[in-house]
Design brief:
The chain has about 270 residues and is mainly beta. The protein has helices at about 1-10, 20-30, and strands spanning about 40, 50-55, 70, 75-80, 90-95, 100-110, 125-130, 150-155, 165-170, 175, 180, 185, 200-205, 210-215, 220-230, 250-255, 260-270. Strands 1, 3, 4, 6, 10, 11, 13, 14, 15 and 17 form a 10-stranded antiparallel sheet that branches.
């Protein structure tokens, strides 16, 4: 609706009959804004958190404790300067709606120091969650949404060994890898290590319940398929309906795990499948 009105306002449709203009506006009202395949759509508008909703462990949906998620100078920031200690306040910033077949691209970087009380494994650690449950269905003290996670890791500095990014983690889920059900919680990609505060471009090419690729700087670094609920998991098993474990779509969210991280781009291209 907003996009259609913008086009009318800018005069792009001035050469069309009024009846056609009215029809196009009606279509925009009844069709989701992301219904056009093949075009990149910005999920982060560079100005505010319009379209996004926070869910932080221990707090009601929509309560942005400590102004954790914010926009400053055109950057979407996950910050902890209002925290005394992390205290297991794992958070996720959910974009409205659910998605199945698409390419999601984010440009991110880690900055600053980890907040006191953050777990050691969360140093320069964050992630993009997809095929996730709705934030409304999360319990108030639930730490992570049932989802597939493209884990983002930053290096610990030169000489400290490799630390790949665009890894896979599976909170409440499983995937099939190399033809077999993969049950471990996380697996590393083949990416290089990114030290310091440099910007990194990560893409997720998602084909519903089919093949999923993780890419870094345009190179495929991980591949798997058949994302599904894990009936062994406390939260995952609650989402199983009629014995069907398979996941073909779900929510997209950005993670807060105690280390500051910034996003300068979050965009999606829907695939016609």
């Amino acid at each position: 609706m907003r996009e259609a009105m913008r086009i009318v306002r800018d005069g792009f449709l001035g050469c069309f009959p009024r009846g056609l203009i009215a029809f196009l506006i009606l279509v925009s009202i009844s069709t989701p804004a992301l219904a056009e395949e093949g075009d990149w759509v910005q999920l982060f508008n560079g100005k505010d958190l319009e379209g996004w909703t926070p869910k932080i462990q221990g707090y009601p949906l929509g309560e942005n404790f400590g102004n954790t998620f914010r926009v400053e100078d055109g950057i979407l920031k996950v910050s902890y300067d209002h925290y005394d200690t992390f205290d297991e306040r794992f958070g996720h910033l959910f974009y409205d709606g659910e998605f199945s077949n698409y390419i999601l691209r984010v440009e991110y970087r880690f900055v600053g120091d980890q907040v006191p009380g953050g777990p050691g494994w969360a140093f320069r650690n964050s992630g993009v969650m997809f095929h996730g449950q709705s934030p409304e269905s999360m319990e108030i003290d639930q730490d992570f949404p049932v989802s597939i996670e493209a884990q983002m890791l930053g290096g610990k500095g030169e000489g400290t060994g490799e630390r790949t990014t665009a890894n896979l983690c599976t909170p409440g889920t499983n995937v099939v890898m190399n033809g077999e059900l993969f049950l471990p919680h996380c697996v590393n990609s083949t990416s290089k290590t990114y030290n310091g505060d440099q910007w990194v471009t990560m893409e997720l090419e998602v084909h519903g319940n089919g093949v999923i690729h993780h890419l870094v700087d345009g190179e495929v670094v991980l591949e798997y398929e058949k994302p599904q609920l894990d009936e062994r998991d406390e939260y995952g098993k609650k989402l199983i309906k009629d014995g069907n474990l398979m996941l073909s779509g779900g929510t997209i969210s950005l993670q807060s795990e105690s280390h500051p991280v910034e996003f300068r781009k979050v965009e999606i291209k829907l695939l016609d499948e």
